[in-house]
Hints:
Strand order of the largest sheet: 1-2
CATH superfamily of the largest domain: Winged helix-like DNA-binding domain superfamily/Winged helix DNA-binding domain
Order of helices and strands: HHHHHEEHH
Structural class: mainly alpha
Helix content: 55-70%
Low-confidence stretches: 162-168
Strand content: 5-15%
Distance between the termini: 40 Å
CATH class of the largest domain: Mainly Alpha
Number of helices: 7
Shape: globular
Amino acid sequence: MQRHVTADDRIRQFGFLLKDVSRLNTRHFEQCAKGLGLTLGQCKVMVYLSRNEGATQARLAALTEMEPMTLVRIIDRMEKDELIERRADPSDRRAHRLYLGATAHAVIAEIIRVADYARAEALAGLSAADKSQLMVLLEQVRANLIALVPHASDDVDSSVEFVRTPVE
Length: 168
């Protein structure tokens, strides 16, 4: 006998579904990005740094949700490849500020191209209105959680502005 699935049953799966969508989206991006010659961690560092140039390593670790030691290894490699440069923090001689290197902008453009492609594939079959509604709803859930979780706004990438589009 088949069990009738109620709206309450479906909503109880919210966290599981969100996590699974995130996991699958990440794996799909990694598949699409194989030709870039960068790891997912490097891609994250490049994109977050492009939005937060001059950030400290500690701030970039929080934004990318990476352990500081993992981030240091990634930055060391990317600094050798001249994608990132460390500069002394004028207000704290123990800290470094991170900036994009000369070749970074072309690499970021490729990362964005791959991300756009992967996103288009993930959202295939959704109308423009569906995509807009999906984003509006996720933004509302995000805002709710920022208000509910202590210090959540400390970890929010304030450089990202979510574009509001009318939903038809």
